[in-house]
Design brief:
It comes from Planotetraspora silvatica. Pfam families: ABATE, zf-CGNR. This protein is mainly α. It has 6 helices and 6 strands. Strand 5 and strand 6 form a beta hairpin. Helix 2 packs across helix 3. It starts with a helix and ends with a helix.
Amino acid sequence: MNFNSHTDGVVAVAVGLVNALTAGEARGRPHLAPGGEEQAAAATQALRIGGRHYAEVTAEEAAELTDVAAALRVVFESVARGDADEAARQVNTLLKETDARPHLDRHDGEPWHLHFHGTGGTRAGDWAASCATALAVVLGGDLFDRLGVCTAPHCDRVYVDVSRNGTRRFCSTACQNRVKTAAFRARNT
């Protein structure tokens, strides 16, 4: 199940930013938001999830992207709670703040595709506009409930469910296996 190739890539970056740059729990352990050089490296890696090789993120850009990630997390958490209205409000706020404007762009030998960068011109602002618009595409369609937060105990990492049947509940196979192993042990005790 795909939204479209560009939207899929940008939603994947949104997931990567939230999971890399926000504190909480991951796979049964505390997940501290990285700082300093680790924050910049984590932000760079998150941007590269979409399949492109982007330049290294600076410390200032990483701090701005961390704020973007916190705002994006609200969208995933709202959908997971079944509160599509709050998710839409958050996306609309991001779209307004970033002055996201669709325009066609072609670069790196790729065909024309939509970009949504605002007029601000900062890297974090451009990614905030792109992520907010991609999430708006998801929320505005029939598959809005494909955004989620891991249901495994002690994990709050986010995901987008691109499976055919839309039954994903975990951020990773590791969390799924933790839950299955715990259930197996509980049955056999």
